[in-house]
Amino acid sequence: MNKTISRRDALEARLRAIGDERYHDKHPFHHLLHSGGCTQDQVQAWVINRYYYQCSIPLKDAAFMSRCEDPDMRRNWRSRIVDHDGGVDDGGGLRRWLKLSEAVGLDPDYVASRKGVLPATRFAVDAYVRYVRDKPLLQAVASSLTELFAPKIHAERIEGLLAHYDFADDRALSYFRHRLKEAPKDVAYGLAWVLDHADTPEKEDMAAEALIFKTDLLWAQLDALHSAYVEPGRIPPGGWQPGEGAA
């Protein structure tokens, strides 16, 4: 009994240490955004590119559920799709993200079209969907555990945006406020499942590698943003140009 508890605790500590070292709250772009240092163009570029990630999350989760034979697991997992897609009338996280798009001066239809998304963003996000679709279930679930660290960054984002940007209000930031409630629910189930099923040293390594993959993916998206819009003249072909898609 004690050995099992010790193994679970050690694995959880290992996973949390990955986030402490590698989560994208430490990326220079987020420091710039949360401190009020971003221009309107840079905020808009972030909103456009991040939407591609947001709208791919339900696709990732649907791919995961199509492989999951356990009805109890599917029942627990499907709320993630509902959180993002919502109902026909009220929408969900995606519709709330489009409210943010409107608040920062973008046409929501333009953002929803996914035009102007950076090539590196597409490659990174599409790789995540494939990862969850193709890898063993243990790694697919473990890759979702960046949600362990998400509430902190959402809280910092709400505070920073409200303090530094005129567009920020309750309507514009509703996506992040909802995630403060949704993410802990999701990660409680996912973490417990990983700790239960990563029951050998090899499987523990698989879980850790999956979480590293996910943190790398999130970091790569911000690298692409920083390179294209903070460093002048680095927007690649096909990337959003400031002024496009204005509301």
List keywords for this structure.
247 residues, Heme Oxygenase, Chain A, 11 helices, 0% strand, globular
What does this structure look like?
By secondary structure, the protein is mainly alpha-helical. The chain has one domain: Heme oxygenase-like (Heme Oxygenase, Chain A), CATH 1.20.910.10. It is built from 11 helices and no strands. It has helices at residues 2-22, 28-34, 40-67, 71-85, 93-103, 108-113, 119-134, 137-142, 150-164, 174-197, 201-230. Helix 3 runs antiparallel to helix 11 (201-230) and helix 7 (119-134) packs antiparallel against helix 11. It starts with a helix and ends in a 17-residue tail after the last helix. 36% of the residues are buried. The model has no long low-confidence stretch (mean pLDDT 94).
Question: Topology of this structure?
Answer:
Blueprint: H1 2-22, H2 28-34, H3 40-67, H4 71-85, H5 93-103, H6 108-113, H7 119-134, H8 137-142, H9 150-164, H10 174-197, H11 201-230
Helix pairs in contact: 1-11, 3-4, 3-5, 3-7, 3-11, 5-10, 7-11, 9-10
EC number: 1.3.3.11
Family: Belongs to the PqqC family.
Keywords: Oxidoreductase, PQQ biosynthesis
